Amino acid sequence: MGVFDRLPPMDHMRSEKMCFVQLIMPAESSRLAVTYLGELGLLQFKDLNEDKSPFQRIFVNQVKRCAEMSRKLRFFSDQINRAGVRSSVRPALEPDIDLEELEARLGEHEHELLEMNTNSDKLQQTYNELLEFKLVLSKAGGILASSHNHAASAERELDENIYDNGVDEGNAYLLEQGVHQGAHGNSGVRFVSGIILKSKALAFERMLFRATRGNMLFNQAPAGEPVTDPISGEEVEKTVFVVFFSGEQAKAKILKICDSFGASCYPVPEEMVKQRQIFNEVSARLSDLEVTLDAGIQHRNKALESIGSQLWRWTIMVKKEKAVYDTLNMLNFDVTKKCLVGEGWCPIFAKSQIKDCLQRATLHSNSQVGTIFHEMDTIKSPPTYFRTDKFTNAFQEIVDAYGVARYQEANPAVYSVVTFPFLFAVMFGDWGHGICLLLGALVLILREKRLSSQKLGSFMELAFGGRYVILLMAIFSIYCGLIYNEFFSVPFHIFGKSAYECRDKSCSDAHTTGLIKVRDPYPFGVDPSWRGSRSELPFLNSLKMKMSILMGVAQMNLGIVLSYFDARFHGNALDIRYQFIPQMIFLNSLFGYLALLILIKWCTGSQADLYHVMIYMFLDPAGDLGENQLFWGQKELQILLLLLALVAVPWMLFPKPFILKKLHKERFQGHTYRFLGTSEMDPDSEPDSARARHDDFNFSEVFVHQMIHSIEFVLGAVSNTASYLRLWALSLAHSELSTVFYEKLLLLAWGYDSLIVKLVGLIVFAFATAFILLMMETLSAFLHALRLHWVEFMNKFYHGDGYKFKPFSFALLADDED
Hints:
Layout: H1 2-5, E1 18-26, H2 27-40, E2 44-45, H3 60-83, H4 99-165, H5 169-183, E3 189-197, H6 201-211, E4 217-222, E5 227-228, E6 235-236, E7 238-246, H7 248-260, E8 264-265, H8 272-328, E9 332-334, E10 339-347, H9 351-364, E11 372-376, H10 393-402, H11 413-428, H12 431-446, H13 448-452, H14 458-465, H15 467-484, E12 500-502, H16 510-513, E13 515-517, H17 536-569, H18 573-604, H19 610-619, H20 634-653, H21 655-676, H22 690-696, H23 699-723, H24 726-750, H25 755-793
Antiparallel strand pairs: 1-10, 1-11, 2-10, 3-7, 3-8, 4-7, 5-6, 9-10, 12-13
Helix pairs in contact: 2-8, 2-9, 3-4, 3-8, 4-5, 4-8, 6-7, 10-11, 11-15, 11-24, 11-25, 12-15, 17-18, 17-24, 18-20, 18-23, 21-22, 21-23, 24-25
């Protein structure tokens, strides 16, 4: 262990050191001090008023005022969006204003806008009514004129029938009365004219027919132009109607039905002269209203433009003020000393900056008393804070999605920057597809300034946030694609000639006559001659499967080594002796030995069956290996490794719980003797006393936890190693899918003489590559790489039960929603 002890503590992979601080601020400088701390953004306040509701806190009135101003600002934003007014990107420069002046100005703007909206709504309603009246006059007048012409022709026809055809007198009298009543309103036949939604016209007519029992005549005509609906504000199609009826009772029923169907009724005179006169008056009023409405809209848009130029600035100002008062409500108010007492967490490196902010606040507020800032002891676990930039932030978010690290716990994101995109590339390896990913990542990176200021969709926002992850995934995909020698599944002789040639120089098909090795091995990656050969699939399967096991064993060993550094950093010798050492022995006695056999087989070119070796290592440890022996003393080594693996299991399970029980018992007895010699101290009065710690220790719970942890590791060593075979499976699937698309789409279409067939084949191949290989396969490989890190790698050392450092910062307000 001396070698490990001489290694550095690896501070670069741990969260920032935190301290618990207390602030005692005079009331007159508290608001300015909290404002400066918000601009700094390195202090997380603790809520000292958790037992109080929001309405019982000190600055509740100020918070209400800020909430009311936020409501007005949202109202302005909604009005600007509805009007389609474009506010200037750069707000107009105006002198700074205080909160009271801003509150008064927002109230004036709201009152002005509400008044303009009310007047505009009234004018628009009047305009819509006049427009409907104009349409009713136009269409109903035509209906009435046609009814008059029809009545006159019917009267002439009636006279001819009476005198020429000899109709009896009773029927002639009824027909004459009916015609005269339809032609003249003073004979008892009346009419109601109006306008209704086109979708309701049929149901409206049926209801009228049933209510009047058929004693009515319904005429309708399309309005001819859309009319604005007063409720929804959308343009709708309407129909003009004229209902002829007789009697006051029928009129009352018809008007009630019109009201229930939302139909608007308008009076239309029968005389054509009066109709033309009213029509001209209505048209003139409509023209005047159009001019008035346009002027009102222009005035309203100018007012909204002036508001929009300052809206962003005002919104940020109100958000800051509200955040300041929300933070002040988290502090305790000392009435006697007229000061505010706050507590919170801050990084140790930020202490000097916080002190500078507090001194500036005291100076600028002209306070006679300065702010007291000092550290405090606490038994609570500090929050976790990692300083990241735009490159490392996405990798840290991937780790935090599994769980936030404990305070000063080893951070897997440091290694995930390399291991995550590399494992992705092992499954995705194709340098043609990698170049496509690289181009997409470069587009996002080169346009990041413009994209960061825009509101993106959910998918685009996800891709933009992980642009540097995609960049590294693309670079590693190109690297692995060169190793696999695949460019859209096509091999190339990039690094020289193939090591194999046709057995006979006159042969034309190397895949059927066989190949022989004529020169040194291909210098980098897979030899292109393997492509299409009869042994291509067995060779690549063997290569990728063994490579997956090597990578899995290496990464799992890295996770166990990190658990050692964690235990060493926190001074936990028990975890080193009874977890780290037996875990390393168990994993490497079985799967580390398998990785060693793979390397020896590759180096020696042996034909040994590794499946047989590993199976009979358990079934017949002392048996003869025969042809499967790779080196001298292999059988003895296997027996030793098997015994070590068997010893490692109880080593992990039993010692730690019993040692913990002994330590807790000794600690409790030692503290008890100390308390007996000092009558002034009460062990029950201390929250962290030996008695409390002893009562919290439960041996059965600790033993069960250790047993679960040991069983999980033993079974997980097998399942996690097998889980790394997904690297082989997905790599093979990606390669075979690329081959299918290339041969069955592109090459098949290229075999035809028709240009259209070639073009269609190329388009289908491009779409299949883009949507299946570059989108679905990318997502699949990403999720599998994520699982390998979360489950197989991080569970060896990572607890992930901490909580994030969330400082009071104005920089975070732009991302928050009210």
